[in-house]
Write a structure and sequence with these properties.
The complex is a heterodimer of chains A (about 230) and B (about 190). Chain A is α+β, with helices and mostly antiparallel strands and about 230 residues long. Chain A is built from six helices and eight strands; from the N terminus they run H-H-H-H-H-H-E-E-E-E-E-E-E-E. Chain A is elongated. With about 190 residues, chain B is an all-alpha fold. The longest helix of chain B is centred in the last third of the chain and has 26 residues. The two termini of chain B are about 25 Å apart. The chains are: A alpha+beta (about 230), B mainly alpha (about 190). At the A-B interface, helix 1, helix 2, helix 3 and helix 4 of A face helix 2, helix 3, helix 4, helix 5 and helix 6 of B.
Amino acid sequence: MADPMSCEEATDLLALEAVGALEPADRELVERHLATCAPCTHAAAEYADLASLLPAALDLVPPPARLRRQLMAQVYAEATAPSRPSWWRRLVAAIPAGRPFTAIGAVAVVAAIVVGIYAVAGRNATSTSVTYTVSGTTATGTLSVDTTARQAVLTVKGLSALPSSEVYEVWLIPPQGAPKGAAFLSPGLGGGPWTAVMGGSMAGYTSIAATVEPAGGSPTPSNTEVLSGQLTVS
Amino acid sequence: MHLSDDDIVRSISAHSPEGIEALYDRYGGLAHTVALRILSDRGAAEDVVQESFLAVWRRGSTFQPGRGSLRSWICTIVRNRAIDRLRGDRHRTRLDSPIEGESIEPTVSDPWAAVAVELSAEEVRKALAELPAEQRQTIELAYYGGFSQSEIATKMEVPLGTVKGRVRIALDKLRASLADRMETSWPTQ
């Protein structure tokens, strides 16, 4: 279909689009024009970038540290979740609905289950886990890193209970640059060890520490270290 | 290790959690500031930021290098979600990139992405303050209020064409003013 719009007309609409004021009906016309006009595509990018400078005039309000934690916990949970239905769900789904469960079918199911168990066992056999020790004045613990699942669990004994206004925040520390807030330690039931689960790779970090921070966490660690450990194999 | 915006885009496209982490670390503060400015509610702003980054994670990058910087892309995603929430208009279909279409990707050097890094908030404020009040108000009603061209025309009691003209002139002036400031801060290249 012919493009009825001139570049001059399109430019007006591109400015409107950049600030979010373009009417839906006009958007279609602009899209049609952009499909064949490289200079206006360039202009669209420039207007979009200019509009994105508007917030630069605002005083930056950093989000609370817990928001990053929540987001990344969700992302890592989804990243490590199986992307396909589990083997037994696929097996169940493969059984025709409403068909009598015959002896042959039952044998096939059992056989598939055995194969499945071997497959799962085989996968676990390739998992690699490394354990590091951590300690503080009163605390001792371990950090178990599963490099295959890209997940780490910190388990700590000997920490005191905290008031609700404070948390134990776990930091991963690179050789250079700022420590990264990675998780909060949760108390175990009935006085059991404190634990924190972290997703992602530990590569690039040389040590780990935990500090006492206000509830919600801090952008940078305070000077209240309760434990630390080296992420190097001795 | 410093990742460039291109590295971050590649990482997101590869569905790497580290890509989202890097995107958040670089633009999470900006995203939160935009959402909070639009919604004036900390809880709602945090929800919008989280939803926006999760949407990027789940859908992968729809970022098109020729259509603006990574900064403007994430700003648009967050802004659109915040505006939808502000207006309670959940049925409204919005596009994450400013304009989706056939992918034409001319070489764009993203000059304004670099400007965003170099210019201080004060300099951008000054550039905005230099705009005539009605132009500034028009782009703020659109960008932070989520009003369309016709809604702004009604609100400001001006013809549709006036709104269109004000927005374009305002952005053109802003570009010229910021370019001047960049030249002042970088006298020689």
